[in-house]
Design a protein that fits this description.
The structure is a homodimer of 219-residue chains. Chain A is built from 6 helices and 11 strands. Chain A is an alpha/beta fold. Chain A has a single domain, classed as Dihydrofolate Reductase, subunit A.
Chain lengths: 219, 219
């Protein structure tokens, strides 16, 4: 059974994008690129991008394993809209990507193996379809973000694991890690931490629980 | 020269107290006690409280060393007001404690070595006086919280180190770790991480920088 694993980089002050990320001028928000620099400097990222060199160590190993085990991805429409131009004609996913959206588009197969599908039934439906696609390849599902999709996945009880990559920068504002208040009844267990190239990789299991978790006003 | 070190427990959703912590009924906010349970279960805490047993490991060692090296403390008035009753006649600090406040009280020496002093000149003055007191004992200064005092200390450039104890619980709301937006020019460096008894201890150096850091609208 594929595992559904979310990964996201977060600043020390708890933001996954900097201020003004809706302006169009700063897709990651002001300073938001500081959250992702560590990734592009990893040897395993550079190898995948056809370049040499880069940082080795626990972070590189973690992300190398991430690329290998990912058989399908779930992303939000915001990430799709902002990424489309940056990814170019051959997006780096190389697997089926299920885009959670209220504004569906026709399926979009791309050179290199990426195949975008637009899902209007919410993150649970996207995770279900991604799980089927990943199972066919004997791999796992990567919930790649942004924060809104990861929050919804956690709230809907579809995540098996949440991996935070804590970057010791301050953004001073922006998009918080969790886009909505989460139910305190959701339990998580920290299973592994690694400090590598200045970034803390913090892994959590999300034990499967009965029903769904939407924050309710019952307490 | 004493080091000025802040320690605070924070939930995975970034809160240092739960919702409704101003109501008087829940000094730590609803669910906020879940942030501190790990501490009371440590062998080194229990020993200090005159009890036996408890958890051993990196967390116990970190906090044992904390008790040993603390020669003076800085806390906020909120923590003082809420703690006063809980601490009883012999507060657990056993060192000079400088309380940052706009509403000063006369100095209050207590049995057991705790001596409260009320400082109206802000966190920088409190840190300065605590540093002098700690230096006289060859020890360090502990900035104990709450979040507002720690945020102000970071903004004022008086912290040498920030230690976060990340507890994998969700509070769903409450007081965020940083009480005000911080200047993205403040740099931090993650120096150590330890996972112990389910809690991640995340240490950061705060290199001394020119001038003070208050978030300004210049960017």
């Amino acid at each position: 059974m594929p595992q559904v694993i979310a990964d996201i980089s977060v600043s020390l002050d708890g933001f996954v994008a900097g201020p003004e990320d809706s302006s169009g001028r700063h897709p990651l928000g002001i300073g938001g690129e500081r959250l992702h620099r560590w990734l592009f400097e990893l040897a395993t990222w550079r190898t995948r991008a056809g370049r040499g060199g880069g940082e080795r160590g626990a972070g590189a190993d973690i992300m190398g394993e991430y690329f290998t085990r990912t058989g399908a991805a779930v992303i939000g429409r915001r990430m799709f809209d902002h990424g489309e131009k940056a990814w170019g004609g051959e997006p780096p996913f190389r697997v089926p990507v299920f885009v959670v959206t209220h504004r569906p588009l026709p399926p979009r197969p791309m050179p290199g193996g990426t195949h975008f599908e637009f899902v209007t039934g919410g993150v649970a439906e996207a995770a279900r379809r991604a799980t089927a696609a990943a199972a066919a390849r004997g791999k796992d599902v990567a919930v790649m973000g942004g924060g809104q999709v990861i929050t919804a996945a956690l709230a809907a009880g579809v995540l098996d694991e949440l991996r935070l990559h804590i970057v010791p920068v301050l953004l001073g504002g922006g998009r918080p890690l969790f886009a909505e208040p989460l139910d305190p009844a959701i339990t998580l267990e920290t299973t592994r931490v690694e400090l590598s190239s200045g970034v803390t990789h913090l892994f959590h299991r999300v034990p499967k629980q009965e029903g769904r978790h939407r924050c309710s006003p019952t307490r």
